[in-house]
Amino acid sequence: MNHYHDKTQPQLIDEIESLKKRIEELEQAEFRYKQEEITIKTNEIKLRNIIEHSSNLFYSHTPDHLITYLSPQTREFFDCEPEEAKMRWTEFLTENPCNEIGLVSTGKAIETCKIQPSYELELVGKRGRKLWVEVSEAPIVENGKTVAIVGALIDITERKQAEKTMRESEERYRTLTEAAQDAIFIIDREDNIAFVNSFGAGLFGQAPIDLIGKSRSKMFPPELAEQQNQSLQQVFKSGESLQSDNKTVFGKNDVWLSTRLVPLKSDTGEVHAVLGISRDITERKTGRAAAKDSEYLLRESQKVASLGSYVLDMPGSIWKSSPISWMMYLVLIKTTIRIYLAG
After folding, report:
1. Who's near 143: CB < 8 A, 6+ residues apart?
2. Least CB-packed of 59, 91, 194, 281 within 10 Å?
């Protein structure tokens, strides 16, 4: 009490004000602490809801791979309760060689104390059901040493099955296109060869790998390349298929091709490329030309017969004909020679 008696009134007032200020600071600190505590609890609830209701499985394990935590999704992933799955996570691995990547990645995260890229694993549950997962994880580091690994698993089994189905489908179609005796090709919007089968590449005397990525227009004479470009642009713009027969030049050879152009559309309906299937119809075309020539010769012969007559004396090999028939015969010979030379 003497302590306060020794102080003047102004001094006491200052001390009281300081005490009030200190009390206010303590009250504010307590309020902030309570607010932070509420925020932490709220975040914990949110995080728990995310973990418990997410389609992903969350986990943690020690540096020697012993699982210490598993979220409720364990039931969907491993067909068992979380407590039943608390073992070394490596026991869930199948014998798939790709799993080695995961072992190496986790080992590197533990050793370096750094996050590693995501990786894929093939796992097997308690009932023998196999599944594919994508793993994203991070090391928990204390005093420069990894004390745990935490992460999440995403079930990608359906995606992997879809990828496998797509690969098998692509392989089947690749086999079909390679076995086809037609030129099969794809031209993109930049007018480059996106795909060509062996038969099509063989027309240029090359392999498919030598042509893919090259400009289509540079593979043909300018006039023919422009004619092809007009057909391609028509398909790009209309979105409809186009059929045509054209003579095409491959090196020194003229080849008649019957070509069907088909638009390849994206999910939005935009034509992003054109598929072409060309069949060699040279023999058919040249056969028709020969037939036309034969018909022409027949008509000319009939004209000769109607204008005059001639007789050949076989033993003496002597021609006897009227003047007009002899003249027409010479015309016929000249016509035959012309057709032969033109062919």
Report:
1. none
2. 91
Token pair 């990608």: residue = 156
Task: Provide CATH code, domain 55-161.
Answer: 3.30.450.20
Q: Are 261 and 274 in contact (CB under 8 A)?
A: yes
- pLDDT in tens for each of the 343 residues of the chain? 555 556 677 777 777 788 888 888 888 888 787 888 777 777 766 667 666 667 899 999 999 999 999 999 999 999 999 999 999 999 999 999 999 999 999 999 999 999 999 999 999 999 999 999 999 999 999 999 999 999 999 999 999 999 999 998 888 888 888 888 899 999 999 999 999 999 999 988 899 999 999 999 998 889 989 999 999 999 999 999 999 998 887 877 788 999 999 999 988 889 999 999 999 898 887 766 555 655 655 565 555 445 444 444 444 444 445 554 445 445 445 555 554 455 4
Give the integer Cα–Cα distance in Å for 343 and 291. 12
Determine phi and psi for 216, rounding to 5 degrees.
-60, -40
Instruction: Report which residue type is found at 29.
Output: A
Rounded to 5 degrees, what angle do the CA atoms 255, 261, 262 make? 155
Where does 182-280 sit in CATH, by number? 3.30.450.20
Measured between alpha carbons, how far is 228 from 249 in angstroms, rounded to an integer? 12
C-alpha–C-alpha distance, residues 73 and 79, integer Å: 9
Q: What ranges make up the beta strands (E) of the chain?
A: 57-61, 67-70, 119-124, 130-142, 145-155, 183-188, 193-196, 242-250, 253-265, 271-280, 310-313, 318-321
Provide the whole-model pTM: 0.55
Neighbours of 342 (CB within 10 A): 8
Domain extent listing, the chain: 2-51, 55-161, 182-280, 285-342
Q: Three-state SS for 65?
A: coil
Q: Is there a common fold for 55-161 and 182-280?
A: yes
Q: Maximum CA pair distance of the chain?
A: 171
